[in-house]
Amino acid sequence: MGSIAGDVLPPDDVVVTALRAGDETMFATLLDTWSHGMLRVARSYVSTDHSAEEVVQDTWLAVIDGIDGFEGRSSVKTWVYRILVNTAKKRGLRESRTLPWSAFERDGQPSGGHGPPMTGRAEFTAAWPTPEGEALAAEARGLIAEALSRLPLRQRVVITLRDVEGCTSDEVCDILEISAANQRVLLHRARTAVRGWLAGYYESVKQPD
Questions:
Q1: Which residues are CB-contacts of 20 (< 8 A; sequence separation ≥ 6)?
Q2: For 50-84, how does the pLDDT look when each residue is reduced to its tens digit (9 = 90+)?
Q3: What is the spatial distance between Cα 209 and Cα 193, in angstroms, rounded to a whole number?
Q4: pLDDT for 134
Q5: Residue 133 burial (CB count, 10 A)
Q6: Cα(52)–Cα(87) distance, integer angstroms
Q7: Phi, psi of 167 (to 5 degrees)
Q8: SS3 category, 34
Q9: Most CB within 10 Å of its CB: which of 10, 42, 177, 200?
Q10: Which helix (H) or strand (E) holds 108?
Q11: pTM tops 0.70, yes or no
Q12: Dihedral Cα 180, 183, 189, 192, nearest 10 deg
């Protein structure tokens, strides 16, 4: 499996060798490259920013402790994100905020009549008008973040990984340990809901001809 789009890192075998050797520069590079995205994903599961930060810290400690056992069956980033998700789930359950992951399988199953799955980051965003001006763009980003926060957990995590972090469908299935069909349905439902919430906003900012 290839690396996730947007990363500029050495090949996985170089990364693993460096981490096993205790290379602090490589570790710092991974922290700089991945930690912001990890915080966004962790925040989907836990109730505060501080909790998300602790989840990310615990994840990196687990990565350091477990790197010798990394077998290369997935990319390094997929492996790290799987540790992150498992750590965040446990933290979230302690906070009585999340559902068991088995709920993803039940709620993500296709139930006759759903529309064709949408694929690709560009397809999701292409339907949204591009705001003109930094203030409008900032407002739109805030509205998108608010819309994402209103989604059910299972949909929020999938859309965050796919459309915010740029993961492929295979990577999301690997990270979350769900089927391709569930990933497609969860993503489709999340995108549809976010589009619906944003539709009124974009109508309100349209300028008259």
A1: 67, 68
A2: 999 999 999 999 999 999 999 999 999 999 999 99
A3: 29
A4: 55
A5: 8
A6: 10
A7: -70, 150
A8: helix
A9: 42
A10: helix 102-108
A11: yes
A12: -90
